Amino acid sequence: MSLYSSSPRSLSPLLLLARSASSTSSPSPDFSRLPGARTPKVAGDKGPRSLRVPSPDAARSALNHCVDLVKKHDKASYLATILMPPKSQPHIFAILAANVEIALTRDKVSSVSTTAMYRLKFWRDTFSAIYKGEGLVPQQPVATALVAFARCSSFDLLDLLAAARQRTIGDRPFNTIQQVYSYGRDSTGSLLRLQAHALRHATGADGDAATTATDAAIDRLAEAHATLTLVRSAGPFTLRRVVLLPEEILVGEGLTPDNVVSGKNQDKLQTAVKRLVELGASRLHDSRAIRSSVPRTDRPALWATAAQCEHVIKTAAAAKYDIRSQLLQRPRPLLAWRLLGWRMTGGY
């Protein structure tokens, strides 16, 4: 399908993404005509009615903060979101910004510090205040955006997302690949479900009516993402003498965490890394195998994560499974065009 055959109505977002692919400064989505800054119409059991709804100006300022935060720290999700239905974008950007805040807390604070625990508790308490009416909502831009645009989101999924990150504080390696999969389902899987919920809600469908196929596809993709993210982050973590690669895989090749940090037994380490990449690729394949059963409206939620998985699989092979190769740290070229292709074909 040619870009030039697109209708005038569909051409605008295509050109927007094309410019972002060829420019270092991506345009921000235009929310000036979106209804999101008004009080969302939700059922009485979707959230506490006592919450003070932000003014339109406060909501818009908070949303712009969320967009900038996601654009800076999660470019793949930013590009994917600006291709999603406009009515879903404020909701999804608020959720993605909350995820960035949680991830930055986990990744930037020393594992021996209690600061990370307190910051993650702050976000869990914030979710409780917004979605369960327990406590006061802090004057924080992302919290404001959640109140204004994401009142119908699931407290359980948001709390599980933060709890999963909280469990990894201490930089202890995973014992088995099944533990990696479980972490992926709780962290990435929760985020994908929140996005799928937002997409359904924007179309007027029952946001909670996820199909079995959607849930299965999300679980397999989340498992792939967790596994492949371990591979991509392994090199930088060794500089901090941290090894998160599952002991089950290392022991299978006769390796110890010290071997990974020192770089000894490089051949065995590359074999172990290749095994992890193959497991991640298998999970990605399993997710895509049921794509036709996943409602087309749900699939955009999987775009960014699938693109990230593809990139790690390809670059790890090009780097010959050397975790210290800079190839693994390079951003994916032509990412915007890959996402655009999926938007046009219904893939992921």
Please provide a brief summary of the model.
By secondary structure, this protein is mainly alpha-helical.
Describe the fold and architecture.
- InterPro entries: Isoprenoid_synthase_dom_sf (IPR008949), Squ/phyt_synthse (IPR002060).
- It comes from Pristionchus entomophagus.
- Pfam families: SQS_PSY.
- Residues 21-34 have a biased composition (Low complexity).
- This is Phytoene synthase.
- This protein is mostly helical and 348 residues long.
- The chain folds into 2 domains: 56-152, no CATH class; 171-348, Farnesyl Diphosphate Synthase, CATH 1.10.600.10.
- Helices cover 62% and strands 0% of the residues.
- The protein is built from 15 helices and no strands.
- The chain has helices at 8-22, 56-73, 75-81, 89-108, 115-132, 141-149, 155-167, 177-186, 188-202, 212-238, 247-252, 257-262, 266-289, 303-318, 335-345.
- The longest helix has 27 residues, at 212-238.
- It is globular and about 60 Å long.
- The two termini are 17 Å apart.
- The model is unreliable at 1-16, 21-25 and 35-45 (pLDDT under 50).
What is the strand and helix layout of this fold?
Layout: H1 8-22, H2 56-73, H3 75-81, H4 89-108, H5 115-132, H6 141-149, H7 155-167, H8 177-186, H9 188-202, H10 212-238, H11 247-252, H12 257-262, H13 266-289, H14 303-318, H15 335-345
Helix pairs in contact: 1-15, 2-3, 2-4, 2-6, 3-14, 4-5, 4-6, 4-7, 4-9, 5-7, 7-9, 8-10, 9-10, 10-13, 10-14, 13-14
